[in-house]
Amino acid sequence: MFRMIPFQSACATAPRNDVNRLFRDFFGESFAEMSPATSGWGPAIDVIENEDAILVRADLPGVDPKAVTISIEDGVLTLSGEKETVEEERKDAYRLERRHGSFSRSVALPDTVDADQTEASSENGVLTVRIPKREETKPRKIDVKVN
């Protein structure tokens, strides 16, 4: 029912991943992590469907919720934003594994949702987007009349 739309990053192609793996194996993890070629990232997300809505939860620790853009266009939900880099931390770092920079994740939504009623909230670094289903598409119980 759902189709994940892959996020684009600087290392999205298989040959580049192979080269990155070689550099990481030879020079160590810290070299690969500090390389500009690996700077693209996307938050981990869950897409959950219940009777009333579609819920999309994204792990965004350290990202200001006000810096996140949420849009729905042509049946595709897109979360985008940027996680700021603290430059003072970078110059004296021994190891950098936390991702920084721009991100974008997209999920194709089913036709059953009411995009105009979308709500979003953030708690403890987790963004939750709730897209309710249209009333006419929700399951309903039909009682049997007894004569």
Features:
147 residues; Immunoglobulin-like; elongated; 17% helix; four-stranded antiparallel beta sheet; alpha+beta; single chain
Structure commentary:
By secondary structure, the chain is an alpha+beta fold. It has one domain (3-134): Immunoglobulin-like. The chain is 17% helix and 33% strand. It has a four-stranded antiparallel sheet with strand order 1-6-5-4, with no helix packed on it. A hairpin with a 2-residue loop joins strand 4 (69-73) and strand 5. The radius of gyration is 20 Å and the shape is elongated.
Rg on CA atoms, Å: 20 Å
Question: Helical region count?
Answer: 3
Distance separating the two termini: 40 Å
Strands side by side in the biggest sheet: 1-6-5-4
Helix content: 10-25%
Supply the number of structural domains: 1
Q: What form results from the Cα inertia axes?
A: elongated
**Poorly predicted sequence stretches spanning 5 or more consecutive residues:** 8-13, 29-39
Kindly report the CATH topology. Answer: Immunoglobulin-like
- Tally of strands: 8
The computed structural class is: alpha+beta
Q: What is the CATH domain class?
A: Mainly Beta
Q: What CATH architecture would you give?
A: Sandwich
Strand content: 25-35%
Taking all residues together, what is the mean pLDDT? 79
* Major sheet attributes: 4 strands, antiparallel
Helix/strand layout:
Blueprint: E1 3-5, H1 14-27, H2 29-34, E2 45-49, E3 53-59, E4 69-73, E5 76-83, H3 87-91, E6 101-108, E7 119-123, E8 126-132
Antiparallel strand pairs: 1-6, 2-3, 3-8, 4-5, 5-6, 7-8
